[in-house]
Amino acid sequence: MDFEKDRGCFVCGPDNAQGMHADFTLDEQQQAAYCEMELGPSYQGWQGVVHGGITSTLLDEAGIYACRSQGVTFVTAELNVRFRKPVPVGRKVRVSAQVKERRRRIYKVVSQLTIEDEIYAEAEARVMCLDDSAR
Hints:
The protein contains one helix and six strands; from the N terminus they run E-E-H-E-E-E-E. The chain is mainly beta. It is globular.
């Protein structure tokens, strides 16, 4: 399957009118990425709580961006999320991820969603590089 880059990603795409418009910062030295944003009521599940699917989506995207500090085209092969606390709507969150291990084209990544340095959700992912761009 060929993957074509565009600006329509639900999480980070600037051209997706319904998207989250997350703006990730890459740290190539640390093989990491992070983003800070506020999750408003349009991302609510239960009243006042961010939907777990949105939380998972952000953890997934952070993992991809951490890998993108080392290459170009990646997809998630496996994502295991642990929800520690309900994420409240309207709070500024930090989503971060770091590559912990690499074996050929498979990267092991850990990610966290925190509020004021307290972990609300975390994930481990296996991410696959789809091209020869990895450094």
